[in-house]
Structures are given as C-alpha cells and as structure tokens.
Amino acid sequence: MTPESLLRQYYGHSSFRPGQKTIIDKLVGGGDALAVMPTGAGKSLCYQIPALMLPGVTIVISPLISLMKDQVSSLIQMGIPAAYINSSLTARQVQTAMQRACEGRYRIIYIAPERLENESLDTLVRHVPISLLAVDEAHCVSQWGQDFRPSYLKIREFIKKLPVRPAVGAFTATATGLVQEDIVKLLELDQPCRVITGFDRVNLYFDVVSPSDKLAYTLNFIQRRKNQSGIIYCGTRKTVENVCQALQQQGLPATRYHAGLDEAERHSNQDDFVFDRTPIMVATNAFGMGIDKSNVNYVLHYNMPKDLESYYQEAGRAGRDGEKADCILLFSQQDVALQKFFIAKIYENQTLSDEEKERLSALETRRLEAMVNYCVSEDCLRGQILRYFGEEYGDRCGNCGRCNATYRQEDITKLAHSFMACVAHIERNMPYGLGLMSIISIVTGKNSAEIQSRRLNDSIIFGAMRSASPEKLRSIAETLLNKGYLARSEGRYPTIHLTDEGRRNLVSNSRITRRAIEKKPSARARKRASYSAPNERLVQKLRDVRLQLAQKAHVPAFIIFSDAALKDIAVRRPMDVSEFLECTGVGERKAALYGRAFVGAVREFIESEKA
Ligand code: ADP
Ligand code: MG
Q: What is the set of domains in the chain, with CATH numbers?
C-alpha cells in the first residue's frame, strides 16, 4: 500500500497537503521527523499513515485527554484499530486495553505521558514491537514553551528502554526556534527531517469591528449563521452570563463556560458543545485548552483579549477542519480600559518584588499595545499577526476585513477641535486631570453618580458635545492620541492631555482628517458565491442524518463527517455508494457504514425537488 492509496482508502482525501508526504516518507523509512505545522494543517495523518504501513504498533504520546478520545473514535470510525490509555479509564479498562494491545490487536495506541513509567507498558513492549513513536504537542517538552509538562521529559527514558529504537516523530503547532531546538535535544531526535510550514491559517477570515451595540451585532451575526457552531469569548464571567442569557432568550442554542461554574456544569456544558447539542459556546478564556472540536465555524471575541498570543490561540480554534471560518473581534475602548485594569493589578500582587512588578507590567503593556494596534490599524490583519510572530508576510492577504475594506477620507476637524478644547479646559480647571472615559462622560452629559459626587456636572463643558455618541468620541480621541495631538499620562490612572502639537493645531484651526473604513460587505459574499454552492436545505438534511448516526454511535457529529464532507456531498449528490466514495472525507469504511443513509437522503431530496 502506498501512502496515497491509504489516504484515499481510509481518509477519503485525494492529495497530500504541503509537508505531509515528506514526513510520512521519513518515518516509514525508520527516520525521525520534526513537524511544526499550524492547527488544522493535518499533523495526525503524518503519523497515522506510517502506522498503517509499519509493522508492530505505533505509540502516540498526547497530553490532552479529551483529544485522545476523539482521535481514537475517529480512527475506529475509519476502520483503523486503535485505543487510548489515560487517567479517564478505570484500572480494569486499562488492563483490558493492555491485554488486547499485547495480542497485537491495535495499530495505534494513544498514551498520556504520565503513563510511560507504567509497568504494564513494559509487558507490552516485550510482546509487540513498537516501530513508531509519535509525540503530539511536542512543545510540552520544553520549558521555554507555555505548556511545559515535566512528564514529557520521561519520553526520552522510555525510548531508551525499548529493545529496538523506533522512528520518532515530534509534532507541534507552536514552536519558536528555541523550542524546536529543545524538542530535538530533549527527545534525542536523530537527524530529523524538519517540516516547518509557518503559522498562517489560510482558511481563517479575520476582521475587527467596533459596533455601537455589541450585543445587537452578536445576535445578528449568529442569526445569519443558523446551524453553525461557534465560540464567543468574553472578557469577564459577568459578560459571559449576560451574553449567554441574551442568546438563549432569542432561542439560540447557547451554553456557557467559565471558572466560576462548578466542575460538573463546566464538564456537561463542554460536552453539550462538543456534541453539538448546544453548538454555541459563550466562555471566558478558561475555555478551550484540550478541546478538539474541528467544526467550529466562527470565533467571535466580544472583548479584546490581552495580547495577540492569546488572540491567535483562541481565534485559532475556528476552522480546524480546514473549512472557511470567521474570526471576528469586537473592539471598544472599554476593552482597553479593562486590560489596563488587569495590568494595574500586578502592583497588588504581594508575591512579586517591586522590580518584578515593574518588569511584568511593562511587558504586558507592550503586548497590550500590539493588540490594540491590531484593532485600530488599517493594515492587513493577517500580515500583522504573522509579523508579530516573526514571519515575513506581504502587504495584503485578500482574506481579512482590512484587505476587503475600502477607505474614504473623513474630515473630523469640528468634533476633534471641540474635544481638544474640552481637554484644554479640563487641564486649566482640574489640575489632577481626568481619564478618557470620564472626559467622554462629562462632555456627552452623562449624569452618573460619580460625576455628581465630584460635581463635574457643574462644569461648563458638561454636555458640551451632547449630540455626539460616546463611541464616536472615543474613536476621535483615539485618532487624536495616535496623531499625537493628545497624550495619555503613564501610571495607574492615566489622564488625557493636550500636547503642544495639539495646541498649535487648535489655535491655527488646521484641518484634521483620517482614513475611515467604508464597509464593502459584498466582497466576500461574491467570493463565496463563485464556487458551486451546496443547497442549504440538502446540507441541513445531511446534517440531520449525521446527527442521528452520531447519536447512535455515541460519538460527536464531526467524527462521522466534517462539514466540508457534508458540503461536498451536497454539491456532488452521489446516487450510489461508489459515487459517495468520490466525496471528500469519505473513506472506504465510512462509505460502507454510512453510504446507504446519506445516498438515501440525497435521493429523497432530489425526489422532493422534482415534486
Ligand atoms: P492538526 O493536528 O495539524 O491540527 P489534524 O490532523 O487534526 O490537524 O487535521 C485537521 C483536518 O484536516 C482533519 O479534518 C483532516 O481530516 C484534514 N486533513 C488532513 N490532511 C488532509 C489532506 N491531505 N486533504 C484533506 N484534508 C486533510
Ligand atoms: Mg493535532
């Protein structure tokens, strides 16, 4: 069997993606490999196909329990005998699995790193030759990485103990040069072939928007994506509660996740999401580690995260099946204030020395600035992300909100000058200064308790810009800060000041303009319509079939077929099982198991179209 024929037979894919074949060839030849490929690039295939070609068994080390279970279910669905051994199994279940493993019944066994020292593994090693060891999430071996796991250091001992050294493959989505070197050194990879395909997730569409009403925007966004699965990340638990409740009130199938919920509820909500019982998850950043749901169609950030590392990781949970997916960030100045508040809290941390506090705070502030820049800059969003991670990237990706936007020149002189005049007045009359939010509240005439208690509503600038919306003023202020007409003081409570340049501009009454984005929403819609679009009703029908089959087999729906597969079936409309096999993602075993059900549904649909 060649790798290509196995790819077709088991996975139902027609060709390899970049890098896959190189790794497979090297591992099948008994050599080592290091693969740094982004999430969704298809790393699993790179060790699963060699596992089918090599004698004996392949051991896969993986740290994520939920992910192991899904992978093994997927393999079994494809007709590849596999098992996993981790702490979610009872002692008895482990024993049974080991027994079967010793009988040589599995091609692939997933094992948690903590289990490597287990004696029963020694028995296995004596019975069945291990020809390949695949280390998933290999960056966990390095202390430089974010998810260092001491148990990964045991992998090396484990390899040494084996009677014959297997081929070793290390796989990760995130590894800087330093971490890559650590992986090679700590796993003792022997002249590994290196496939490093970069960070770009081409199927993700990025956009940043600043709607005046985030909740309304979100509801509308989701209403337009009926039947899709998505994650909405919020900055605080309270926002999670509010947004989730609002969605549920609209009858949308949403659930929630944050650290304030008890473990049982977190667990069951997560399951409801993974199994598509409630395909919308509203969560804080506590959600996501170890979740491997491949059919997430969008990740919407209700609030801006603290840095681009967090953003890319969270947004990256969309589109792991390789399907087009949307990553939208809803930006507002309050988000910046919230993050600054968190940074200020560093100074309350008793366990840090003063010097550490300063250093940490400066570091986080720099990261936050990069994050804010991403939100306000007019440059290609993908390019900004990739360059932040040290990759070179051209000017435009053509697949983000900035590349798709057109710009117009907006004259903001009038509002800008009024605002600057108000700031000047504050500087003259209130020597302690005011923060941006307070200034905006005052000039728009917001009569809050704080303003009343500080008697700011007595000021002549109170309500002076009543006709402008706070959002508009916030964006004007941000422009003025960027242009250097206003400045923000350092420190815990930053205040806003007019700079000399701003004063000159005001006095000379010079024009102030900025580039403003003109929405061109049809650009993407046009692009989408250019391929033969599947009939939505048919896709829905196929989805129902998938859900039924999934429930019967007790696996998440995406393990039966990805959304990409369903769409391809809807486009091709197979009339028999052999035509069914032509569809993307349909391998031989799945065709045999599910062909009749799906072909039946397609036929029914075609009949109903005729009627
Ligand atoms: P990773 O582990 O790199 O995040 P996975 O191995 O989970 O990615 O693969 C992501 C998705 O891409 C899976 O749905 C898989 O079936 C699909 N895929 C992988 N290789 C190919 C290929 N050559 N052609 C089409 N789809 C592929
Ligand atoms: Mg993977």
A: 3-196 (3.40.50.300), 204-405 (3.40.50.300), 408-519 (1.10.10.10), 536-610 (1.10.150.80)
